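Quick one: structure tokens for this chain, please?
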Amino acid sequence: MDNAFFATFTGLVDAGNGLLWGSVLIYLLLGAGLYFTVMTRGIQLRYFGHMFSLLRRSRESDGGISSFQALSTSLAARVGTGNLAGVAVAISLGGPGAVFWMWMTAMVGMATSFIESTLAQAFKTDHGDGTFRGGPARYIERGLGLRWLAVAFSVCLIIAFGLAFNSVQANSIAQAMEQAFAVPTWAIGVLLVAVVTPIIFGGLKSIARVAELIVPLMALLYLILALAVVAMNVTELPGAIGTIVKSAFGLEQAAGGAVAYAVSQAIMNGIQRGLFSNEAGMGSAPNAAATATTKPDHPAAQGFIQMLGVFLDTLVICTATAAIIIMAGPELLAGDEASGIQLTQMALSSHVGRWGGMFVAVAILLFAFTSVIANYSYGEVNVEYLAGRRAPAAVLIYRLAVLAMVMVGSVASLGPIWNFADLSMGMMAIINLIAILLLSPVAFALFRDYERQLRAGAEPVFNPAQFPRLVDRVDADAWPARGAKRE
């Protein structure tokens, strides 16, 4: 009886994942991204330089969490094993052309990220300790008045990001360390729990400080290595770019049937892995975006900062992995002996020698570790939202549950649980996309307000009184009237 129920349950989960991730979410995420791109007149291109200019003041926080710390936290969650293994899977299944479609997905995803992060900032609430809380749950309730839908989103996020995906990341770390350095997985689990505990018990400020230190360093080291690989093979760079573009449109295949199949595989795998990596539209990054004290003092400012996060994740870090793999030569891709992270390790070792595999193992350790603490922070925000006045007790229980999942994930593969987490993430993405499409007029109005002040030569400042749809819905402690001072 139990086996029959389990088989039925896993079958339903697999069917749900196939429907969501095989068609519904792809069309919904891309459609929303294209709509936001058109309505903002190509915000990701017109304000590309402005994204970087905002980094100059991004460390200012008035004692709270700075824009740079919020960006680092969201990047910590975005940049995980998918940037190493996911790119390899996309290339091995879809060919080099999958990289091109990852780029296109990221381009439209940048506009989606701007919309959801701007809304998260607009509807954030003052936490009373110099920091803020927010995200889809709060803009669904405050913006749409749909408390039940906000609760559903929070539950899905806690299951996926807060618990299950942390066990996935812990498993990736343990397996990589065992293969590279022969360290027992249980020992890695104990060490991870010991390191993660003081960070998450320190709260969101502690997580933001750790992310601010580790994320830029790990990304920089990985990019330096990728650039070194490109420099070692610089004569092959034009050919590698040509291979990506030709493969994306089936120009390397001779027969018509082969062309159609190759292009469909490149598109499907590139889009799926791109969406999974940069998380634009999923509703995860807005939880980090809402915590920031923005400079300039306007919701759209954090929208631009988080838009930069999608660019760095996919168009920079994923491209670095793709360069390492593709420049290793077509012979590597033609073999059947490796896929996923093993393909990345073999490719890097072919460039720099045996220590390349160890470097990838260390990269996994850093990428996955920072994902654990960032994913935890997303869950904490939503646990607090659900628990209300009972938040302290609920957060303590949640912290202990996260540590348990990290330990269990280190020593065991939890396939059915991870599959259910994929379904939960798919559901939260659908809820979030529906919400941001319904609230997009608010985000567009905020963008126009920011753009108008910027063109007038003034530093943009958000005044809720100028927005009839917002004035009674925003938290006055988080967004005082223009000219008033925060206490």
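The first strand starts at residue 65 and ends at 66.
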